[in-house]
Design a protein that fits this description.
The chain is mostly helical and 112 residues long. The protein contains five helices and two strands, in the order ααββααα. The protein is 46% helix and 11% strand. The model has no long low-confidence stretch (mean pLDDT 81).
Length: 112
């Protein structure tokens, strides 16, 4: 029979190799995000926004990062903050085909 200690070492080594492959090697192409404040594991940027009026805090954060577009990740939920009207127009009007998609309703396309 296989010794339980050997089985434990083999399973720990396999788990360690899987973690190394996932985090150090990258596991594929990484997405490029706009500038972001430093985030913490699991909670992300939850504590990066000071209490008070949110719009003023996000505006100040954009000034600190020197960007009109700020990326934040709050507990796994990605958030994009647009601090200027021009960046909103660029993303929502000029590039709307890239960022928008509608599901085609089968009942409207092929009625029975």
């Amino acid at each position: 029979m296989i010794d339980t200690q050997v089985l434990l070492y083999v399973s720990l080594a396999t788990a360690a190799l899987a973690l190394v492959q996932r985090y150090l090697i990258g596991g594929g192409r990484k997405l490029r995000h706009p500038p972001s404040p430093i985030s913490l594991p699991f909670v992300g940027n939850l504590f990066s926004v000071p209490p008070g009026l949110d719009h003023l805090a996000y505006l100040e954060l954009g000034k600190q990062l020197n960007s009109d577009i700020v990326y934040m990740n709050m507990m796994g939920q990605p958030i994009i903050i647009l601090n200027s009207a021009q960046s909103a127009i660029d993303l929502y009007e000029k590039r709307s085909a890239i960022y928008s998609d509608r599901v085609c309703a089968p009942m409207l396309k092929n009625p029975v």
